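Key idea: predict the complex, not the pieces.
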Amino acid sequence: MQQYAITAENLSKRYDDFLAVDQISFAIPKGSCFGFLGPNGAGKTSTMRMIGCVTPVSAGTLEVFELPTSEKNSRSIKERLGVVPQEDYLEQYISCYENLELYGRYFGIKGNDIQSKIKELLEFVHLEAKTHTQVRFLSGGMKRRLLIARALINHPEMVLLDEPTTGLDPQARHLIWEKMRELKADNRTLILTTHYMEEAEQLCDTLAFMDDGKIIALGAPKELISQHLAPQAIELVVAMEERNKILERFADAVSLHTHLGQRLVLYSDKSGEIISALQQSNPGVELRSRLTNLEDVFLKLTGHQLRENA
Amino acid sequence: MSATSQGLSFSLTSAVRVWFRSVYIYRRTWLINLLPNFFEPVIYLIGMGIGLGAYIGQQMEGMNYLQYIAPGLVVANAMNGATFETTYNLFVKIHFDKKYDSIISTPINIEDAMLGELFWAMTRGMIYGGVFALVIYAFGLISFTQILLLLPVVFLASLLFGSIGLLFTAYIQLIDLYSFYYTLFLTPMYFFSGIFFPVEDIPWVGEIAYLTPLFHAVKVAKAVSFNQIDSSIFVHLIYLLLVGIVLGYLGIKRIKAHYMR
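Result:
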Protein backbone atom coordinates (compact mmCIF):
# COMPACT_ATOMS: atom_id res chain seq x y z
CA MET A 1 0.00 0.00 0.00
CA GLN A 2 1.21 3.46 -0.90
CA GLN A 3 2.24 5.45 2.17
CA TYR A 4 1.65 9.15 2.18
CA ALA A 5 3.71 11.79 3.94
CA ILE A 6 0.93 14.32 3.39
CA THR A 7 -2.71 14.19 2.42
CA ALA A 8 -4.85 17.28 1.96
CA GLU A 9 -8.54 17.45 1.17
CA ASN A 10 -10.35 20.66 0.30
CA LEU A 11 -7.70 22.52 2.23
CA SER A 12 -8.24 26.29 2.56
CA LYS A 13 -6.42 29.15 4.21
CA ARG A 14 -8.07 32.46 4.90
CA TYR A 15 -6.40 35.56 6.34
CA ASP A 16 -9.17 37.93 7.44
CA ASP A 17 -11.03 38.52 4.18
CA PHE A 18 -8.31 37.22 1.89
CA LEU A 19 -8.57 33.64 0.68
CA ALA A 20 -4.95 32.56 0.16
CA VAL A 21 -5.59 28.86 -0.44
CA ASP A 22 -8.89 27.75 -1.92
CA GLN A 23 -9.97 24.12 -1.39
CA ILE A 24 -6.95 22.27 -2.69
CA SER A 25 -6.52 18.49 -2.53
CA PHE A 26 -3.36 16.48 -3.02
CA ALA A 27 -1.44 13.52 -1.62
CA ILE A 28 2.32 13.24 -1.42
CA PRO A 29 3.85 9.74 -1.30
CA LYS A 30 6.66 9.15 1.17
CA GLY A 31 10.11 9.54 -0.31
CA SER A 32 8.98 11.57 -3.33
CA CYS A 33 9.74 15.12 -4.35
CA PHE A 34 6.68 17.31 -4.72
CA GLY A 35 6.71 20.85 -6.06
CA PHE A 36 4.30 23.75 -5.80
CA LEU A 37 4.78 25.94 -8.84
CA GLY A 38 3.14 29.28 -9.32
CA PRO A 39 3.56 33.05 -9.35
CA ASN A 40 3.94 35.11 -6.19
CA GLY A 41 0.69 35.21 -4.27
CA ALA A 42 -0.56 31.89 -5.67
CA GLY A 43 -0.85 30.32 -2.22
CA LYS A 44 2.34 28.24 -2.22
CA THR A 45 3.87 29.63 0.94
CA SER A 46 0.56 29.55 2.81
CA THR A 47 0.23 25.87 1.93
CA MET A 48 3.78 25.23 3.15
CA ARG A 49 3.07 27.09 6.38
CA MET A 50 0.03 24.93 7.06
CA ILE A 51 2.08 21.78 6.42
CA GLY A 52 4.77 23.13 8.75
CA CYS A 53 2.16 23.71 11.50
CA VAL A 54 3.03 27.39 11.84
CA THR A 55 -0.38 28.61 10.76
CA PRO A 56 -3.72 26.89 11.36
CA VAL A 57 -5.85 25.33 8.65
CA SER A 58 -8.93 27.46 7.94
CA ALA A 59 -11.05 24.70 6.39
CA GLY A 60 -10.69 21.19 5.02
CA THR A 61 -8.28 18.55 6.29
CA LEU A 62 -4.52 18.26 6.25
CA GLU A 63 -2.63 15.27 7.57
CA VAL A 64 1.13 15.16 7.92
CA PHE A 65 2.68 11.78 8.78
CA GLU A 66 -0.93 10.59 9.10
CA LEU A 67 -1.59 13.08 11.92
CA PRO A 68 -4.06 15.95 11.53
CA THR A 69 -2.16 19.24 11.81
CA SER A 70 -4.01 20.24 14.97
CA GLU A 71 -2.40 22.24 17.70
CA LYS A 72 -2.20 19.11 19.79
CA ASN A 73 -0.11 17.34 17.15
CA SER A 74 1.98 20.30 16.07
CA ARG A 75 4.98 19.62 18.30
CA SER A 76 5.26 15.96 17.32
CA ILE A 77 4.85 16.76 13.61
CA LYS A 78 7.47 19.52 13.76
CA GLU A 79 9.92 17.16 15.48
CA ARG A 80 10.03 15.09 12.26
CA LEU A 81 10.18 18.03 9.84
CA GLY A 82 13.00 20.11 8.42
CA VAL A 83 12.18 23.59 7.19
CA VAL A 84 14.26 25.73 4.84
CA PRO A 85 12.65 29.16 4.94
CA GLN A 86 12.58 31.65 2.09
CA GLU A 87 14.17 34.38 4.20
CA ASP A 88 17.50 34.29 5.97
CA TYR A 89 16.40 33.80 9.57
CA LEU A 90 19.83 32.78 10.84
CA GLU A 91 21.52 34.17 13.93
CA GLN A 92 23.85 36.71 12.36
CA TYR A 93 26.29 37.33 15.21
CA ILE A 94 27.30 33.76 15.97
CA SER A 95 29.18 31.24 13.84
CA CYS A 96 27.83 28.55 11.51
CA TYR A 97 28.70 25.92 14.10
CA GLU A 98 26.92 27.84 16.84
CA ASN A 99 23.84 28.37 14.67
CA LEU A 100 23.51 24.63 14.23
CA GLU A 101 24.25 23.93 17.88
CA LEU A 102 21.60 26.39 19.03
CA TYR A 103 19.03 25.12 16.54
CA GLY A 104 19.72 21.57 17.68
CA ARG A 105 18.85 22.65 21.21
CA TYR A 106 15.38 23.61 20.06
CA PHE A 107 14.92 19.91 19.28
CA GLY A 108 16.54 18.86 22.52
CA ILE A 109 19.68 17.58 20.74
CA LYS A 110 22.86 18.33 22.67
CA GLY A 111 26.08 16.91 24.05
CA ASN A 112 28.40 14.66 22.06
CA ASP A 113 25.78 13.73 19.46
CA ILE A 114 25.56 17.24 18.18
CA GLN A 115 29.27 17.80 17.58
CA SER A 116 29.64 15.00 15.06
CA LYS A 117 26.26 15.81 13.53
CA ILE A 118 27.25 19.45 12.93
CA LYS A 119 30.56 18.41 11.41
CA GLU A 120 28.79 15.99 9.09
CA LEU A 121 26.19 18.59 8.05
CA LEU A 122 28.70 21.36 7.40
CA GLU A 123 30.62 18.94 5.20
CA PHE A 124 27.43 17.97 3.42
CA VAL A 125 26.74 21.59 2.40
CA HIS A 126 30.45 22.33 1.77
CA LEU A 127 30.77 24.87 4.55
CA GLU A 128 33.38 23.11 6.69
CA ALA A 129 35.82 25.95 5.97
CA LYS A 130 33.30 28.41 7.42
CA THR A 131 32.63 26.45 10.61
CA HIS A 132 33.73 29.26 12.90
CA THR A 133 32.79 32.21 10.70
CA GLN A 134 29.98 34.47 11.86
CA VAL A 135 26.94 34.17 9.63
CA ARG A 136 26.81 37.85 8.71
CA PHE A 137 30.03 37.36 6.73
CA LEU A 138 28.59 34.63 4.48
CA SER A 139 27.36 35.12 0.91
CA GLY A 140 23.70 34.56 -0.01
CA GLY A 141 24.42 31.12 -1.43
CA MET A 142 26.35 30.05 1.66
CA LYS A 143 23.55 31.23 3.93
CA ARG A 144 21.06 29.19 1.93
CA ARG A 145 23.29 26.13 2.29
CA LEU A 146 23.58 26.74 6.01
CA LEU A 147 19.77 26.93 6.18
CA ILE A 148 19.66 23.51 4.51
CA ALA A 149 22.17 22.10 6.99
CA ARG A 150 20.17 23.62 9.83
CA ALA A 151 16.95 22.03 8.56
CA LEU A 152 18.64 18.62 8.69
CA ILE A 153 19.86 18.82 12.29
CA ASN A 154 17.02 16.61 13.57
CA HIS A 155 17.40 14.08 10.72
CA PRO A 156 13.92 14.91 9.38
CA GLU A 157 11.83 12.46 7.37
CA MET A 158 10.51 15.33 5.30
CA VAL A 159 12.07 18.64 4.29
CA LEU A 160 10.08 21.71 3.27
CA LEU A 161 11.98 24.11 1.03
CA ASP A 162 10.34 27.46 0.29
CA GLU A 163 11.92 28.87 -2.87
CA PRO A 164 15.30 27.35 -2.05
CA THR A 165 17.15 28.94 -4.96
CA THR A 166 15.45 32.32 -5.41
CA GLY A 167 18.03 35.05 -5.81
CA LEU A 168 21.02 32.70 -6.15
CA ASP A 169 23.53 32.63 -8.98
CA PRO A 170 23.51 29.56 -11.28
CA GLN A 171 26.47 27.90 -9.55
CA ALA A 172 24.93 28.18 -6.12
CA ARG A 173 21.63 26.97 -7.55
CA HIS A 174 23.18 23.84 -9.03
CA LEU A 175 24.89 23.01 -5.77
CA ILE A 176 21.56 23.22 -3.95
CA TRP A 177 19.89 21.02 -6.57
CA GLU A 178 22.66 18.47 -6.10
CA LYS A 179 22.06 18.45 -2.35
CA MET A 180 18.34 18.00 -2.87
CA ARG A 181 18.98 15.02 -5.12
CA GLU A 182 21.19 13.49 -2.45
CA LEU A 183 18.46 13.95 0.13
CA LYS A 184 15.98 12.32 -2.16
CA ALA A 185 18.34 9.40 -2.71
CA ASP A 186 18.38 9.09 1.09
CA ASN A 187 14.60 8.52 0.88
CA ARG A 188 13.55 11.82 2.45
CA THR A 189 10.32 13.35 1.27
CA LEU A 190 10.99 16.76 -0.27
CA ILE A 191 8.43 19.48 -0.78
CA LEU A 192 9.43 22.66 -2.50
CA THR A 193 7.89 25.80 -3.84
CA THR A 194 9.44 27.53 -6.77
CA HIS A 195 8.74 29.81 -9.65
CA TYR A 196 11.54 28.37 -11.73
CA MET A 197 10.20 25.79 -14.11
CA GLU A 198 13.65 24.34 -14.71
CA GLU A 199 13.97 23.61 -11.01
CA ALA A 200 10.57 21.98 -10.92
CA GLU A 201 11.24 19.94 -14.05
CA GLN A 202 14.61 18.70 -12.81
CA LEU A 203 13.75 17.79 -9.27
CA CYS A 204 10.09 17.01 -8.86
CA ASP A 205 8.29 13.72 -9.34
CA THR A 206 4.98 15.49 -9.08
CA LEU A 207 4.03 19.11 -9.57
CA ALA A 208 1.06 21.15 -8.49
CA PHE A 209 0.49 24.29 -10.52
CA MET A 210 -1.03 26.90 -8.29
CA ASP A 211 -2.74 30.10 -9.27
CA ASP A 212 -5.04 32.29 -7.24
CA GLY A 213 -5.10 29.86 -4.32
CA LYS A 214 -6.14 26.88 -6.42
CA ILE A 215 -4.32 23.88 -7.86
CA ILE A 216 -4.99 24.19 -11.58
CA ALA A 217 -3.00 21.16 -12.69
CA LEU A 218 -1.36 18.23 -10.95
CA GLY A 219 0.94 15.57 -12.32
CA ALA A 220 4.45 14.52 -13.31
CA PRO A 221 6.27 17.27 -15.26
CA LYS A 222 6.39 15.32 -18.53
CA GLU A 223 2.76 14.25 -18.23
CA LEU A 224 1.66 17.81 -17.65
CA ILE A 225 3.32 18.90 -20.86
CA SER A 226 2.05 16.01 -22.98
CA GLN A 227 -1.47 16.31 -21.56
CA HIS A 228 -1.85 19.96 -22.32
CA LEU A 229 0.29 20.85 -25.34
CA ALA A 230 2.00 19.56 -28.46
CA PRO A 231 5.68 18.69 -27.87
CA GLN A 232 7.24 21.50 -29.90
CA ALA A 233 6.93 25.25 -29.82
CA ILE A 234 7.81 27.83 -32.48
CA GLU A 235 8.23 31.44 -31.45
CA LEU A 236 7.77 33.97 -34.26
CA VAL A 237 8.28 37.69 -34.30
CA VAL A 238 5.66 38.91 -36.79
CA ALA A 239 3.32 41.84 -37.09
CA MET A 240 -0.31 41.46 -36.03
CA GLU A 241 -1.77 41.58 -39.55
CA GLU A 242 0.59 38.81 -40.64
CA ARG A 243 -0.38 36.54 -37.73
CA ASN A 244 -3.88 35.66 -38.88
CA LYS A 245 -2.60 34.65 -42.28
CA ILE A 246 -0.04 32.33 -40.72
CA LEU A 247 -2.60 30.85 -38.35
CA GLU A 248 -5.03 30.18 -41.18
CA ARG A 249 -2.37 28.62 -43.30
CA PHE A 250 -1.18 26.19 -40.62
CA ALA A 251 -4.55 25.64 -38.96
CA ASP A 252 -4.28 21.85 -39.37
CA ALA A 253 -0.75 21.50 -37.99
CA VAL A 254 -0.95 23.95 -35.10
CA SER A 255 -2.79 22.57 -32.07
CA LEU A 256 -2.66 25.80 -30.08
CA HIS A 257 -1.21 29.28 -30.32
CA THR A 258 -0.68 32.23 -27.96
CA HIS A 259 0.29 35.86 -28.38
CA LEU A 260 3.14 36.77 -26.09
CA GLY A 261 3.94 40.45 -26.50
CA GLN A 262 5.81 40.77 -29.77
CA ARG A 263 5.88 37.06 -30.32
CA LEU A 264 3.41 34.54 -31.67
CA VAL A 265 3.90 31.07 -30.19
CA LEU A 266 2.71 28.02 -32.14
CA TYR A 267 2.49 24.56 -30.55
CA SER A 268 2.68 21.66 -32.92
CA ASP A 269 4.05 18.17 -33.50
CA LYS A 270 5.00 19.11 -37.05
CA SER A 271 7.26 22.03 -36.33
CA GLY A 272 9.86 21.00 -38.92
CA GLU A 273 7.35 21.29 -41.77
CA ILE A 274 5.99 24.59 -40.52
CA ILE A 275 9.43 26.13 -40.20
CA SER A 276 10.60 25.20 -43.68
CA ALA A 277 7.30 26.41 -45.19
CA LEU A 278 7.62 29.70 -43.28
CA GLN A 279 11.23 30.25 -44.30
CA GLN A 280 10.19 29.92 -47.93
CA SER A 281 7.17 32.21 -47.78
CA ASN A 282 8.61 34.78 -45.34
CA PRO A 283 12.37 34.83 -45.93
CA GLY A 284 14.32 36.39 -43.05
CA VAL A 285 11.48 35.89 -40.54
CA GLU A 286 12.74 35.86 -36.95
CA LEU A 287 11.84 32.48 -35.47
CA ARG A 288 12.96 30.07 -32.79
CA SER A 289 12.05 26.46 -32.35
CA ARG A 290 12.20 24.72 -28.98
CA LEU A 291 10.63 21.99 -26.88
CA THR A 292 7.41 22.82 -25.09
CA ASN A 293 8.08 23.45 -21.43
CA LEU A 294 6.17 23.84 -18.19
CA GLU A 295 5.97 27.57 -18.59
CA ASP A 296 3.97 27.07 -21.78
CA VAL A 297 1.60 24.79 -19.92
CA PHE A 298 1.22 27.35 -17.19
CA LEU A 299 0.57 30.06 -19.74
CA LYS A 300 -2.07 27.95 -21.42
CA LEU A 301 -3.83 27.18 -18.16
CA THR A 302 -3.78 30.64 -16.62
CA GLY A 303 -3.38 33.06 -19.48
CA HIS A 304 -0.41 34.68 -17.79
CA GLN A 305 3.24 33.90 -17.33
CA LEU A 306 4.68 32.19 -14.31
CA ARG A 307 7.07 34.85 -13.11
CA GLU A 308 4.63 37.67 -13.46
CA ASN A 309 3.41 38.90 -10.08
CA ALA A 310 -0.21 37.97 -9.72
CA MET B 1 -12.36 27.72 12.80
CA SER B 2 -9.57 29.90 14.05
CA ALA B 3 -6.68 29.55 16.44
CA THR B 4 -7.28 32.99 17.86
CA SER B 5 -10.08 31.57 19.94
CA GLN B 6 -7.87 28.78 21.27
CA GLY B 7 -6.14 28.93 24.59
CA LEU B 8 -2.48 28.54 25.36
CA SER B 9 -0.76 25.23 26.02
CA PHE B 10 2.76 25.72 27.29
CA SER B 11 5.69 23.37 27.15
CA LEU B 12 8.05 24.38 29.92
CA THR B 13 10.96 22.49 28.31
CA SER B 14 10.50 24.45 25.09
CA ALA B 15 10.24 27.74 26.96
CA VAL B 16 13.52 26.98 28.73
CA ARG B 17 15.13 26.24 25.34
CA VAL B 18 14.14 29.68 24.11
CA TRP B 19 15.38 31.23 27.35
CA PHE B 20 18.65 29.40 26.71
CA ARG B 21 18.93 31.06 23.30
CA SER B 22 19.48 34.43 25.00
CA VAL B 23 21.95 32.93 27.44
CA TYR B 24 23.81 31.42 24.50
CA ILE B 25 23.82 34.58 22.36
CA TYR B 26 24.73 36.90 25.26
CA ARG B 27 27.35 34.67 26.81
CA ARG B 28 30.17 36.59 25.20
CA THR B 29 28.72 40.09 25.09
CA TRP B 30 26.82 40.19 28.37
CA LEU B 31 29.11 42.74 29.93
CA ILE B 32 28.68 45.24 27.08
CA ASN B 33 24.94 44.58 27.07
CA LEU B 34 24.34 44.85 30.77
CA LEU B 35 26.70 47.56 31.84
CA PRO B 36 25.14 50.77 30.42
CA ASN B 37 21.73 50.23 31.99
CA PHE B 38 23.42 49.56 35.27
CA PHE B 39 25.20 52.94 35.51
CA GLU B 40 22.02 54.96 35.45
CA PRO B 41 20.68 54.00 38.90
CA VAL B 42 24.17 54.23 40.38
CA ILE B 43 24.25 57.82 39.16
CA TYR B 44 20.81 58.45 40.66
CA LEU B 45 21.95 56.88 43.90
CA ILE B 46 25.04 59.03 44.14
CA GLY B 47 23.56 62.21 42.65
CA MET B 48 20.37 62.27 44.61
CA GLY B 49 21.41 60.28 47.66
CA ILE B 50 24.60 62.13 48.38
CA GLY B 51 24.05 65.38 46.45
CA LEU B 52 20.46 66.13 47.35
CA GLY B 53 20.85 64.16 50.55
CA ALA B 54 23.28 66.73 51.93
CA TYR B 55 20.41 69.24 52.15
CA ILE B 56 17.90 66.80 53.52
CA GLY B 57 19.87 65.40 56.41
CA GLN B 58 18.17 62.73 58.56
CA GLN B 59 14.64 63.87 57.85
CA MET B 60 13.42 60.86 55.83
CA GLU B 61 11.66 58.76 58.46
CA GLY B 62 14.74 59.22 60.57
CA MET B 63 17.12 58.05 57.83
CA ASN B 64 19.50 59.87 55.56
CA TYR B 65 18.39 60.27 51.95
CA LEU B 66 20.84 57.75 50.51
CA GLN B 67 19.44 55.05 52.76
CA TYR B 68 15.90 56.14 52.03
CA ILE B 69 16.06 55.83 48.25
CA ALA B 70 18.40 52.83 47.86
CA PRO B 71 15.88 49.93 48.18
CA GLY B 72 13.44 51.54 45.76
CA LEU B 73 16.19 51.86 43.20
CA VAL B 74 16.82 48.12 43.45
CA VAL B 75 13.33 47.31 42.20
CA ALA B 76 13.35 50.21 39.72
CA ASN B 77 16.48 48.70 38.27
CA ALA B 78 14.81 45.32 37.96
CA MET B 79 11.91 47.09 36.26
CA ASN B 80 14.25 48.66 33.70
CA GLY B 81 16.04 45.42 32.94
CA ALA B 82 12.87 43.39 32.43
CA THR B 83 11.13 46.19 30.54
CA PHE B 84 13.88 46.70 28.01
CA GLU B 85 13.82 43.01 27.13
CA THR B 86 10.09 42.71 26.44
CA THR B 87 9.74 46.12 24.76
CA TYR B 88 12.40 47.16 22.25
CA ASN B 89 14.22 43.82 22.17
CA LEU B 90 11.08 41.74 21.75
CA PHE B 91 9.67 44.09 19.11
CA VAL B 92 12.83 43.88 17.05
CA LYS B 93 12.87 40.09 17.32
CA ILE B 94 9.23 39.81 16.24
CA HIS B 95 9.00 42.43 13.51
CA PHE B 96 12.52 43.03 12.18
CA ASP B 97 14.62 39.94 12.83
CA LYS B 98 11.66 37.52 12.51
CA LYS B 99 13.37 35.31 15.08
CA TYR B 100 10.29 33.35 15.97
CA ASP B 101 9.39 32.45 12.38
CA SER B 102 12.37 30.15 12.53
CA ILE B 103 11.96 29.00 16.10
CA ILE B 104 8.32 27.94 15.66
CA SER B 105 9.34 25.65 12.79
CA THR B 106 10.93 23.47 15.45
CA PRO B 107 8.91 21.63 18.14
CA ILE B 108 8.66 24.97 19.95
CA ASN B 109 5.28 26.69 19.67
CA ILE B 110 4.86 30.44 19.78
CA GLU B 111 3.51 30.53 23.35
CA ASP B 112 6.56 28.54 24.51
CA ALA B 113 8.83 31.05 22.77
CA MET B 114 7.09 34.01 24.43
CA LEU B 115 7.20 32.35 27.84
CA GLY B 116 10.92 31.77 27.29
CA GLU B 117 11.36 35.45 26.48
CA LEU B 118 9.47 36.40 29.63
CA PHE B 119 11.83 34.12 31.58
CA TRP B 120 14.76 35.89 29.97
CA ALA B 121 13.30 39.31 30.80
CA MET B 122 12.97 38.12 34.40
CA THR B 123 16.55 36.90 34.34
CA ARG B 124 17.71 40.29 33.17
CA GLY B 125 15.58 42.02 35.80
CA MET B 126 17.03 39.71 38.46
CA ILE B 127 20.57 40.48 37.31
CA TYR B 128 19.96 44.24 37.33
CA GLY B 129 18.15 44.23 40.67
CA GLY B 130 20.47 41.66 42.23
CA VAL B 131 23.67 43.43 41.26
CA PHE B 132 22.27 46.73 42.46
CA ALA B 133 21.37 45.13 45.80
CA LEU B 134 25.05 44.15 46.06
CA VAL B 135 26.04 47.75 45.32
CA ILE B 136 23.94 49.17 48.14
CA TYR B 137 25.22 46.40 50.38
CA ALA B 138 28.74 47.62 49.53
CA PHE B 139 27.62 51.13 50.48
CA GLY B 140 26.64 49.65 53.84
CA LEU B 141 22.98 50.53 53.32
CA ILE B 142 21.54 47.04 53.82
CA SER B 143 22.64 43.84 55.50
CA PHE B 144 23.42 40.56 53.75
CA THR B 145 20.18 39.01 54.99
CA GLN B 146 18.32 41.93 53.51
CA ILE B 147 19.81 41.18 50.09
CA LEU B 148 18.25 37.73 50.31
CA LEU B 149 14.95 39.21 51.38
CA LEU B 150 15.02 41.64 48.48
CA LEU B 151 15.43 38.89 45.87
CA PRO B 152 11.80 37.66 45.92
CA VAL B 153 10.60 41.24 45.42
CA VAL B 154 13.05 41.70 42.58
CA PHE B 155 11.81 38.44 41.09
CA LEU B 156 8.15 39.47 41.21
CA ALA B 157 8.88 42.98 39.96
CA SER B 158 10.77 41.46 37.02
CA LEU B 159 7.81 39.20 36.26
CA LEU B 160 5.34 42.05 36.41
CA PHE B 161 7.31 44.54 34.34
CA GLY B 162 8.33 41.87 31.86
CA SER B 163 4.64 41.04 31.47
CA ILE B 164 3.48 44.64 31.10
CA GLY B 165 6.10 45.28 28.42
CA LEU B 166 5.10 42.10 26.63
CA LEU B 167 1.44 43.10 26.69
CA PHE B 168 2.25 46.53 25.27
CA THR B 169 4.47 44.97 22.60
CA ALA B 170 1.65 42.58 21.68
CA TYR B 171 -0.64 45.49 20.82
CA ILE B 172 1.62 47.87 18.91
CA GLN B 173 2.64 47.81 15.28
CA LEU B 174 5.09 50.72 15.42
CA ILE B 175 8.31 50.76 17.40
CA ASP B 176 8.01 54.55 17.86
CA LEU B 177 5.13 54.03 20.28
CA TYR B 178 7.55 52.94 23.00
CA SER B 179 8.39 56.63 23.52
CA PHE B 180 4.91 56.99 25.00
CA TYR B 181 5.37 53.88 27.09
CA TYR B 182 8.58 55.24 28.56
CA THR B 183 7.68 58.92 28.97
CA LEU B 184 4.04 58.59 29.96
CA PHE B 185 4.12 55.36 31.92
CA LEU B 186 7.54 54.37 33.20
CA THR B 187 9.03 57.79 34.01
CA PRO B 188 6.05 59.20 35.96
CA MET B 189 5.74 55.90 37.75
CA TYR B 190 9.41 56.04 38.62
CA PHE B 191 9.04 59.45 40.29
CA PHE B 192 5.68 58.81 41.95
CA SER B 193 6.23 55.31 43.26
CA GLY B 194 7.55 56.28 46.66
CA ILE B 195 11.22 55.79 45.82
CA PHE B 196 12.18 59.44 46.38
CA PHE B 197 9.48 60.72 48.75
CA PRO B 198 6.46 59.34 50.62
CA VAL B 199 3.96 59.58 47.80
CA GLU B 200 0.94 58.49 49.90
CA ASP B 201 0.97 61.85 51.67
CA ILE B 202 0.13 63.77 48.48
CA PRO B 203 -3.65 64.05 47.91
CA TRP B 204 -4.86 62.28 44.74
CA VAL B 205 -1.38 61.31 43.63
CA GLY B 206 -1.18 58.88 46.52
CA GLU B 207 -4.38 57.11 45.44
CA ILE B 208 -3.24 56.90 41.84
CA ALA B 209 0.19 55.65 42.88
CA TYR B 210 -1.47 52.83 44.80
CA LEU B 211 -2.84 51.50 41.52
CA THR B 212 0.52 51.47 39.76
CA PRO B 213 2.73 48.39 39.92
CA LEU B 214 6.03 49.95 40.92
CA PHE B 215 4.50 51.41 44.09
CA HIS B 216 3.87 47.91 45.47
CA ALA B 217 7.34 46.69 44.64
CA VAL B 218 8.90 49.74 46.29
CA LYS B 219 6.70 49.28 49.37
CA VAL B 220 7.99 45.75 49.92
CA ALA B 221 11.60 46.64 49.09
CA LYS B 222 11.53 49.42 51.69
CA ALA B 223 9.75 47.32 54.31
CA VAL B 224 12.38 44.61 53.91
CA SER B 225 15.32 47.02 53.99
CA PHE B 226 14.05 49.16 56.88
CA ASN B 227 13.05 46.21 59.06
CA GLN B 228 9.40 47.15 58.81
CA ILE B 229 8.08 43.78 57.70
CA ASP B 230 4.45 43.15 58.62
CA SER B 231 1.58 41.23 57.11
CA SER B 232 0.70 44.08 54.74
CA ILE B 233 3.63 43.20 52.48
CA PHE B 234 1.80 40.06 51.39
CA VAL B 235 -0.92 42.18 49.81
CA HIS B 236 1.75 43.88 47.74
CA LEU B 237 3.47 40.62 46.85
CA ILE B 238 0.21 39.01 45.79
CA TYR B 239 -0.58 42.07 43.68
CA LEU B 240 2.78 41.73 41.88
CA LEU B 241 2.34 38.00 41.34
CA LEU B 242 -1.26 37.99 40.17
CA VAL B 243 -1.11 41.06 37.96
CA GLY B 244 2.17 39.76 36.53
CA ILE B 245 0.69 36.37 35.62
CA VAL B 246 -2.57 37.76 34.23
CA LEU B 247 -0.95 40.45 32.07
CA GLY B 248 1.76 38.07 30.87
CA TYR B 249 -0.89 35.53 29.89
CA LEU B 250 -2.90 38.14 28.00
CA GLY B 251 0.20 39.41 26.20
CA ILE B 252 1.27 35.93 25.12
CA LYS B 253 -2.27 35.14 23.98
CA ARG B 254 -2.33 38.25 21.84
CA ILE B 255 1.05 37.52 20.28
CA LYS B 256 -0.06 33.99 19.53
CA ALA B 257 -3.12 35.36 17.74
CA HIS B 258 -0.77 37.50 15.65
CA TYR B 259 1.35 34.50 14.63
CA MET B 260 -1.35 31.85 14.32
CA ARG B 261 -3.69 33.86 12.14
